Amino acid sequence: MNLALPWPFERDYMQLALVAGVVVGVCAPLIGTFLVQKRMSLMGDGIGHVAFAGVAAGLVFGVWPIGTALVAAVVGAVCIEWLRSRGRAGGDLALAVLFYSGIAGGVVLTGLAGSLDASTLTYLFGSILTVAPADALTIAVLGLVILLAVVMGWRALFAVIVDEEAARVAGLPVEALNLGLAGLTAVTVVAGMRVVGVLLVAAMMVLPVGAAQRVARSFRATLVVASGIGTFSVITGLAAARAFGLAPGGAVVLVAAACFMVAAVSKGPAGSRLLTSGTARR
Question: Which of 44, 53, 56, 189 has the greatest CB tally within 10 Å of its CB?
Fold first, then answer.
């Protein structure tokens, strides 16, 4: 990229990592805010395990792992929403089914490949410092899709997650909106795989939101603050990784966890109730 940025982002690989990381830092908390409000915080984790199975399938069959991961993640997200909305399983049970099926499928496919090679580990634990220009472009495109969808539909999504029946009475397409949120969650997980890995991507969808809920006074403010915390976590985590030789994905998540702890200690338990009732302000 060859941009004139100061240390620690003066190198090309750090600039590519910064672009990919900031996209995920902004977008993951946006989707995570809706999931936390809907009490489905672990949905990203479950979809991440299905995405891992998609990555393994791509490596086994010699096709683009990001593409197979996206297909697997979207299918898994739709299955969760179908099980939940049709009453075939509660939200937690649907997530558990997806969680264990995804990881089992990934293990089986990895076994067919012969071993857990470096390519697989890249998607499991993230490898943001090896992001190529094509990877950064793919992540940026996925991030743009997420951002546009949230900007255009956050009010309708908020109405659905607060009270589905009231939203249905008001004429909103509740099923389509729930499926759309599930699909956006899948896209977010796939976008974050190269940054923090499928094992940690759910943390970037939850920790910044938890911190933001304790300081923001409305749902819209939570979206903005959570994205700000996610971006701060990425920039600070990358800087710490460069300075101290740390694993960048883990460093980013640890910064997000530290932000949550600071917010929790400084605000106490009251702040966490701001967005957990149907009377939360928009």
Answer: 189
